[in-house]
Design brief:
Number of helices: 15
Largest sheet: 6 strands, mixed
Low-confidence stretches: none
Number of strands: 20
Shape: globular
Radius of gyration: 22 Å
């Protein structure tokens, strides 16, 4: 198969109005429209450049003969929900957790799953060969709008949990959507579930004035202090396109995404008497421990939510996700879904009648350290190959090359993998001791730096 020239692990992200400009967007729209030849839904997040790119992509799609349904500004999973239920394909305009000056384009198929590598290569061939279909004047596509998806998405998510139990628990929740697309869903969802809601950064604003869109601990200090000040039961944060959920416990502690994953996995397996779990090679060993407890299996994939989504569909899996707070409920949406995650976590707290800190404390204990280091894109493959070569020479460690280089040691593991969207390597390490995890993560970084030119 040819190597992709535009698309990364899921879509393409670039600086808005530089590489990610209207001409580029329109041509991508026309190229994907040529492949689809049907009705395409389009929507995006709150970035300042989203309307510009949405109109450009729409023009490209219409010119290829596709009908276009504009869903407006809304979360990525809401668009995926709409496509799966009503349309032939979709295009999502978002750069997720990237800074405000970036934007991106994600293509999804009729199931709302990110398109296959084969499809993306077809789109690229049309793009570079200047051969997108241009419909004759009487076959240009029709343009429609649908403003009902947000409410339907919220309603359908609530239907999938015990909403009465949540309402009766009268939970106090602080939510920080980072001025992203979740501003249109999270506060309303929480209020419909009977929560006492306090909002932070829930005004939609593509400049992201309150915080950076990535919901990491350093960006959530206002949320953490508010949870403590108000004695809230839970703090919730989303990324820019609201497909990921990060939680703060009632004591103000930041909960790593893989802890949330493990908590929900435990509930799902308990409710369904087991089931198949799908996750990536970068996720905590706790996922495997909980699956074993319920006599269930885990399939691991390369990093990327669309890899997890595809396996869930292929194997009719029960539940899946990643270590970054992106959880997938395949009976609803084949993609990371912040709204469904919030509903499920609230349900668990309400039914278990325990604070979330106590529920997390009951899970298997592992300590993960996440680091990253710069690396030019053109050196990534060489560095990985050199590290793999070094590890293969030793009998002390095992090697897993499903995605990047995962080194399995007696005391834990470290995974070194190149980002698909940035010129960096990510290095995650996990053991049952935080100091040991830091030590292994630094060892992983030293291996990268050793082979950088």
């Amino acid at each position: 198969m040819c190597k992709k020239r535009i698309f990364g692990t899921f879509g393409v992200r670039r600086e808005a109005n530089k590489e990610m400009n209207p001409e580029f967007a329109s041509k991508i729209g026309a190229s994907y429209g040529t492949v689809v030849q049907g009705t395409v839904a389009i929507g995006g997040d709150t970035r300042t450049s989203t309307p510009m790119l949405k109109h450009a992509i729409t023009a490209g799609l219409l010119s290829s003969g596709c009908d276009v349904v504009d869903l407006g500004i809304l979360p990525t999973p809401a668009i995926q929900y709409a496509v799966r239920n009503y349309y032939d394909a979709g295009i999502i305009i978002t750069a997720s957790h990237n800074p405000p000056h970036d934007n991106g384009i994600k293509l999804v198929d009729e199931y709302g799953i990110g398109t296959s590598d084969e499809t993306e290569i077809k789109v690229e061939e049309l793009y570079f060969n200047e051969k997108p279909k241009r419909a004759s004047w009487n076959e240009i596509g029709q343009y429609y709008t649908n403003n009902n998806i947000i409410n339907e998405y919220i309603t359908e998510a609530i239907k999938r949990v015990d909403s009465e139990a949540i309402k009766n628990a009268k939970l106090k929740v602080v939510v920080d959507t980072g001025s992203g697309a979740g501003s249109y869903t999270a506060p309303y969802l929480l209020r419909k579930l009977g929560c006492d809601v306090t909002t932070i950064n829930c005004q939609a604003d593509g400049h992201f004035p309150g915080r950076n869109p990535e919901p990491v601990e350093e960006n959530l200090q206002d949320l953490i202090s508010t949870v403590k000040e108000l004695n809230a039961d839970l703090g919730i944060a989303h990324d820019g396109d609201a497909d990921r959920t990060i939680c703060i416990d009632e004591l103000g502690n930041f909960i790593l995404g893989d802890k949330t994953f493990t908590l929900v996995e435990k509930a799902m397996l308990k409710e369904n008497n087991g089931g198949l779990i799908v996750t990536t090679v970068a996720t905590s060993s706790a996922i495997y421990d909980i699956a074993a407890e319920y006599n269930s299996n885990v399939i691991s994939t390369p990093v990327g939510d669309l890899n997890v989504a595809r396996k869930l569909k292929e194997h009719d899996g029960l539940f899946g996700g990643e270590e970054n707070g992106g959880l997938i409920f395949p009976d609803f949406i084949y993609g990371r879904d912040a709204a469904m995650t919030v509903c499920k976590i609230l349900e668990i707290i309400a039914k278990e009648k325990k604070p979330i800190s106590e529920l997390i404390a009951e899970l298997p204990v592992y300590h993960t350290v996440k680091t990253k280091t710069p690396c030019p894109d053109n050196q990534k493959e060489k560095v990985m190959a050199k590290i793999a070569e070094e590890i293969e020479k030793t009998t002390e460690y095992k090697l897993d090359t499903t995605d990047g280089v995962k080194i399995l040691r007696n005391d834990g593991w470290v995974i070194i993998r190149p980002s698909g969207t940035e010129p960096i390597f990510r290095c995650f390490a996990e053991t049952d001791n935080i100091e040991k995890s830091k030590e292994i993560a630094n060892w992983g970084l030293s291996l990268i730096k050793k082979y950088l030119e």
